[in-house]
Amino acid sequence: QVQLVESGGGLVQAGGSLRLSCVVSRRTFSDFALGWFRQAPGKERQFVAAISGSGGSTNLADSVKGRFTISRGAARNTVYLQMDSLKPEDTAVYLCAAALRPRTVIPGTGDYEYAYWGQGTQVTVSS
Predict the structure, then answer these.
(1) Which residues lie closer than 8 Å to 24 by C-beta, 6 or more apart?
(2) What are residue 3's phi and psi, to 5 degrees?
(3) What is the mean pLDDT of the chain?
(4) At 85, which helix (H) or strand (E)?
(5) How far apart are CA 60 and CA 109, in angstroms?
(6) How much is the pLDDT for 126?
(7) Given pLDDT bands bounded at 50, 70 and 90, which one contains residue 103?
(8) At CA 49, angle to CA 72 and CA 18, rounded to 5?
(9) Which of 13, 24, 47, 59 sits 20 to 30 Å CA-CA off 97?
(10) CA 59, CA 111: separation in Å to the nearest integer?
(11) Which residues 6+ apart lie within 8 Å of 63 measured at CB?
C-alpha cells in the first residue's frame, strides 16, 4: 500500500510563498511519478505540477509557470512544491498524488492518471 502525507499549507498574503511537502511511504520511491493537484470549493480538481520518478522531467500548469517549482528531495521519498508570488486564486486544498510509471515518464494532466492520493493540505492566500 502506498501512503502519501502532505504538509506545509497555511495562510499567506498575496505575493508571499509557501513550500508544500509530500512524504511517500514506499520503498521503491523512484518507481512513481508524483503530481500535485488542487481543488477549490465548488470547482473541479485541477492539475498543478508533476515530476518523473527520476526527477529529470517536470510539467507545470500554465497558471503556475514561473511561480511554482516541483522537485524531489534528497531523502528520495519526499516531493516538494515551492509556491512563490501567490495569488488569491491559488487558494485551494492541495493534494499529492502518485502514479506508477517508468522512471523517465510523466503522466498526463488528468487526475485519473494517478492511483494514489494524499488527504490534502489547505492553502489560503489573502488579498
Answers:
(1) 2, 3, 4, 32, 34, 77, 78, 79, 96, 98
(2) -120, 140
(3) 93
(4) none
(5) 9
(6) 97
(7) confident
(8) 70
(9) 13
(10) 14
(11) none
Per-residue exposure over 54-71, b if at least 16 CB sit within 10 Å of its own CB, e if not: ebeeebbbeebeeebbbe
Report the SS3 class of residue 29.
helix
Query: What letter does residue 120 receive in the DSSP assignment?
Result: -
**CA distance to 28, 35, 117, per residue, from 106 (Å):** 17, 9, 16
User: Tens of pLDDT along 29-64?
Assistant: 667 899 999 999 999 999 999 999 889 999 999 999
> Which ranges constitute the DSSP H helices of the chain?
none
| Residue whose C-alpha cell is 498526463 | 108
Give, in order, the Cα–Cα distances in Å from 31 to each of 10, 11, 84, 119.
30, 33, 29, 21
**Residue 98 CA: distances (Å) to CA of 7, 25, 60:** 16, 11, 16
User: What would the mean pLDDT of 7-30 be, rounded to a whole number?
Assistant: 90
Cell 488569491 -> residue: 88
Q: Which residue has the cell 500500500?
A: 1
